[in-house]
Amino acid sequence: MPVANIKNFLLWLVKPFYSRDKQYWKVVLLCLAAASTFWLLNALNKNYTNIRTNYPLSFVYNPQKFIPLKPLPEEIEINVSGKGWKLLRKYLMLDVRPAEIIIRSLPRQNYLQSSALRPQVAAVLDGLQLNFIVTDTVLFSFDRRVKRQVALQVDSADIKIADNVFIASPVVVSPDSVLFDGPASIVNELPAPFPIKLPPVALDRSFKRFLPLDYPNKSLVTASVPDVEVSVAISPLIWQQVPVTPVVRDHPAETPLVLQPATVTIRCAYAQNNAAPITPDQFEAVVNYATYNPADSTAAVELTRKPIYLKRLTMEPRRVKIQPAS
Question: Where would I find the beta strands (DSSP E) of 128-256?
């Protein structure tokens, strides 16, 4: 076909679309709308078979008694047959009732096979025929929901403090307890009293701060308060070194003994309100001859008396050499 003929044919084909008559375009649009509507209505009135689609799933349970341990499945895949109208309504989620799985008591198993789910799905399809459920198994996990009041505590032994201070008062936690709410398998395993962790730094002054509750599985377990106020009084210490002469006890012979060194050094600390200096006569150090080691001629030194208000105490050396007096 010559090129000119092809050109003329194309011009003839598109010439109607160059019309400037508005009435013409209204007629064209009405024709297109009528044809589209007829096609759509004809398609929606047809029967369709073996259509795979997702269908909503709903778990019905008492949230005051039970709690899911993981997110519950929200839909399953099914194979259905039915008219286009019904399928369109399902795809648009217009007045679609989900298939319900009712939990009346704590399930013994954490799954439901498709055969057991078929009656619930078929009952809510409303005009669609259920051929089969594509999803083989629906998995879920529930536990009893419990509430447990647990005391809160800061272990003084876990508090780090600087060498020149001491804990001057009991640690105060406010509130002194917390109510945990969640799955029984998790809540009942929480320690009691529940420990509150302080920052891992040595305190050198009084501490008062809100600290968050640190507990596992926060997505499942809730606490009645998000944080607690912890306060502890810290006071400074006065350090002093005191030389003390130990005495030998339980020596079997009458031979005089000489200790080397003759004195031990006690380094002790006390609160500032006990401002009177420490004196050697407030201590009693004893060399226990029963701990004598012939290999190095040493025995252990034991401190048998000391002031009751001391906060810290060290003694050097812990063993002294015993020799007969010359």
Answer: 129-133, 137-139, 142-153, 165-167, 172-174, 177-183, 194-195, 207-212, 222-223, 227-232, 234-244, 247-249
Q: Distance between CA 182 and CA 71 in Å, rounded?
A: 15
Tokens found for residue 108: 């013994």
CB 118 within 8 A of CB 135: no
The helix or strand, by DSSP H or E, that contains position 10, with its residue range, turns out to be: helix 3-14
Domain assignments of the chain as residue spans, ordered by start: 47-140, 152-232, 237-324
Q: Is the peptide bond prior to 175 cis by the omega test (within 30 degrees of 0)?
A: yes
* pLDDT tens readout for residues 99-156: 899 999 988 889 989 888 899 888 888 777 788 989 999 999 999 999 999 999 987 7
Between 20 and 236, name the one with better pLDDT: 236
CATH 2.170.120 fits 237-324, yes or no: yes
Alpha-carbon dihedral 264, 267, 268, 274, rounded to 10 degrees: 100
Kindly report whether the global pTM for this prediction surpasses the value 0.85: no
Structure tokens at 56: 């909503």
Q: CB of 298 within 8 A of CB of 242?
A: no
Residue-wise burial string across 11-33, b where 16 or more C-beta atoms lie within 10 A, e elsewhere = eeeeeeeeeeeeeeeeeeeeeee
The encoded tokens of residue 293 equal 């080691």
Amino acid sitting at position 33: A
Under 8 Å CB-to-CB from 12, ≥6 apart: which residues?
none
294-303 long-range CB contacts below 8 Å, 24 or more apart? Answer: 296/321, 297/321, 297/322, 297/323, 298/322, 299/248, 301/246, 301/264, 303/266
**Tens-place pLDDT, residues 76-109:** 998 888 776 666 666 656 677 898 999 999 888 8
